[in-house]
Specification:
Elements (H helix, E strand, L loop, with lengths): L1 H20 L13 E6 L2 E6 L7 E2 L5 E5 L10 E3 L10 E3 L25 E2 L12 E13 L3 E5 L6 E7 L7 E7 L2 H5 L19 E2 L13 E4 L1 H9 L6 H10 L1 H6 L1 E11 L18 E6 L1 E4 L8 E4 L2 E4 L5 E2 L5 E2 L48 E3 L3 E3 L4 E2 L5 E2 L23 H20 L5
Parallel strand pairs: 11-12
Antiparallel strand pairs: 1-2, 3-16, 4-8, 5-6, 7-15, 8-14, 8-16, 9-13, 9-15, 10-11, 10-14, 17-18, 19-20, 21-22, 23-24
Helix pairs in contact: 3-4
Amino acid sequence: MRFHFALTLQALWTALCQAAMQHYPAAWGHYDVCKSQVYSDEGLTWDYMACQPEAADMTQYLKVTLDPPNITCGDPPETYCALENPYMCNNECDASTEELAHPPELMFDIEGRNPTTFWQSTSWKKYPKALLVNITLSWNKTIELTDDIVLTFESGRPEQMVLEKSLDYGRTWQPYQFYATDCLDAFTMEPKTVQDLTQHTLLDIICTEDYSRGYVWKYDKTVRFEIKDRFALFAGPRLHNMASLYGQLDTTKNLRDFFTITDLRIRLLRPATGATMVDENNLSRYFYAISDIKVQGRCKCNLHANSCVYDKEKLSCECEHNTTGPDCGRCKRDYHGRAWSAGSYLPIPKGTANICVPNNIGPVTRVCDNELLRCQNGGVCVNNVRCNCPSAYTGLLCEKPRCESELGGCGGPDSGQPPLMPLSSLRLLLLLLLGSALLREASCWPAAL
């Protein structure tokens, strides 16, 4: 009995510990449906909603570039020493041997392998000249970050580093965050942490010493850019009040752009040295090595798509709401009845779709605009330009039984044709005007793209 009780207590303690460790929910946000069919006074119609793709591991879709291009170790082969033990020099890098090579793609492979796989730079053999490396991650698509950016180093975390972002495919860059063992010395910035930020200073660029200090590098491998801690300034400590965050993202363009990127750049400025002085007699101890980079996000589709496809090495939104373009950033042809607008998270929880509407092609050529031009016999209005008729009916307003055009006609009461809703003479006149206008408009439209 005591043993069973102990096991129960242990299970409860494990569950509580796991709950405490998960500071934020693993997935957040809704808006996963773009439209749904609903019943209204006019019958079955579409209800449009703001929508966005699910968050995903965006490292599956990136292109990585290193500068300088020959900064990866192994050509020529080189032997490295351990940072914590300058006499342990048994790590070899050889680009011509698969088991000893450390190419850039190993920053994005499956983790958990033994031994750990990682990219590695050449050593600091040109000291005192700085060992500078730029690692650029490009998506050729705007993406929205939804979780922390996490870098895992196998060589000790760098003593100086800058994380940068681009919103214009790498043409211009802005700093996201500075990292250093001494922010004042490295960047003439006062050291801060994300906990020092407020709702009013969230967009401030800070220098942090949290991820660079300490000699026990073997157990402190990660460097973060804290996305969720910044979300929490609006959504609360556990991101339970997402409505508040969505409201801010909806109404504050600078805030929304802060979490949006097309490219990331990791600028490595000084490797870990583990001491105040560099050992010039053993420079093979100093290098960069990264085993993993995590970037969680979603395609930016302006709340007009709930899926994003990767085809021919390119990401693009599968646009809804009569929009088109890689980011659903414009209206489709013949749907410029009003100016394009991004969807809105508000009002919670469905938001506003802001769909593109058809061109206004005349005062009497838009069905469903008034009581006299409603779809008949269970037909459904589609975008105010036509009726989607049940299988038994046809015509502009579903006013004709389909059997009239078949051989033998409708055949009276035994034909199985349900009774028709009678059309008033005024409605019939408007129907004739509608048909004439649509035919005239169709003859003027250019051929579809």
